[in-house]
């Protein structure tokens, strides 16, 4: 198993954000985490990337991650594309992308990965010398995903990649995410757009109030009455 989480809990001060969350991800698998605002989706991803401390078992390929700092986790193969993108607005597209490879010394492989990002998002090649602050929200999201890919992830964490993006670009981004999975990268994606997530993921977990309320294959969850009514808007 690539990633294993058992009974994970996390807090912000005295406020409990996650409680006894368990999930797993196999190599190359695409897993979605669904839920409303405040359910704990972003917190879960921050715990995995070690941006936030947590209790419980957290292991990558059987190795506990609790002793690792966030930058060390990147070196192990977990790359996090955070909610809100967190780009450097006054740097160019190319410089933002290359920051994702700051731990790498394999120049030839880095160059190949840059070409891979440009193949996924051709507009970024055209905008390579442009300041990120001048891009649209959807184009900035492409940069954020591309930057994470430049870290050569075994596991890519995507936090709300569709938020604040025009409908047309959202389709492009979800198509690219599907191509990333097809390339063998495991993906854990937190997303409010349940319909889009369930179309491309293998399995899903539903978080409600910091707990796993439901989980299973997407075909099964898509037929769950609770999921259909609350998250898909289908009676």
> Which outline best applies?
globular
User: Which assembly state applies to the chains in this document?
Assistant: single chain
User: How is the main sheet built?
Assistant: 6 strands, mixed
Terminal CA distance reads: 36 Å
Number of separate helices: 10
CATH superfamily: P-loop containing nucleotide triphosphate hydrolases
What's the total number of strands?
A: 10
Order of helices and strands: EEEHEEHEHHHHEHEHEEHH
Strand content: 25-35%
Tell me what you see in this structure.
This protein is α/β, with parallel strands linked by helices and 235 residues long. The protein has one domain: P-loop containing nucleotide triphosphate hydrolases (Rossmann fold, 3-Layer(aba) Sandwich). The protein has 10 helices and 10 strands. It has helices spanning 41-48, 70-76, 93-99, 107-120, 122-126, 137-149, 167-182, 194-200, 218-221, 225-230; strands at residues 3-12, 15-25, 30-34, 55-60, 63-64, 78-81, 155-159, 186-190, 203-208, 211-217. Strand 1 (3-12) and strand 2 (15-25) form a beta hairpin. The longest helix is centred in the C-terminal third of the chain and has 16 residues, at 167-182. It is globular and about 45 Å long. It starts with a strand and ends in a 5-residue tail after the last helix.
